[in-house]
Amino acid sequence: MGYSTILDILASIVMGGILLTTVLRLSDSAAEKTYNYSSELSLQQNLATIAQVIEYDFRKMGYCANWQNFPDPSKAIAQADSSSIKFYTDVNNDGNIDSIRYYLGPTSELSSTPNPRDRLLYRVVNTDVPNEVNLGITQFYLIYFDALGDTVPLPITNPGIISSYEINVRVESVYAYDEQYSSAYWRQIRLVARNLKNR
Predict the structure, then answer these.
(1) Is 84 among the domain residues?
(2) Is 153 among the domain residues?
(3) Chain-centre distance of CA 122, in angstroms?
(4) Is the N-terminal amide bond of 155 cis, ω within 30° of 0?
(5) pLDDT by residue (tens digit) across 173-195?
(6) Are strands 98-104 and 77-80 parallel, antiparallel or unpaired?
(7) Which of 56, 63, 71, 59 lies closest to 88, judged by CA?
(8) Nearest to residue 166, comparing CAs of 44, 95, 80, 47?
(9) pTM of the complete model beyond 0.70
(10) N or C: which end of the chain has fewer CB within 10 A?
(11) Residue 6 maps to a domain
């Protein structure tokens, strides 16, 4: 009778251990799913915010409320590179020409965040202090096309030939769960500013 009781106790301990391990795994899985869902929701909101601002600015490229102040829209783009662009537009709709510059900062600027790939996206209006956008951006990449739809090779020495562009933005979560970062991607294919066609 003594051995039977010991065997029953050992079997109960083993079964209890299996149940406890199962419960802990379920709890960990639930915490991971909750974190990932909230992280992905935050990513989607960040990406939507970034996309709205970029799309709004880029569509106004070459625009001026007083068209006589901007007689040649082919000069709307001042500089163009794979991860930076400077163009002219009327930001405040007041008839004055403003410049907007977007560029991606280095990863070293955000060394305080756990994600090693996130960067600051800068938006500079005229000579104002740059607005820093820190929403987990890891990629801001531009591809330019001429009037025939051919890709304009880099480096671009004559920005006046650009008639459309593709914008690529990737965001990742700033904090990882189990060393995994959630990510979201937005691509605007062949965005054309209406004013660039007025040539």
Answers:
(1) yes
(2) yes
(3) 12
(4) yes
(5) 888 777 788 888 999 888 877 77
(6) unpaired
(7) 63
(8) 80
(9) yes
(10) N
(11) no
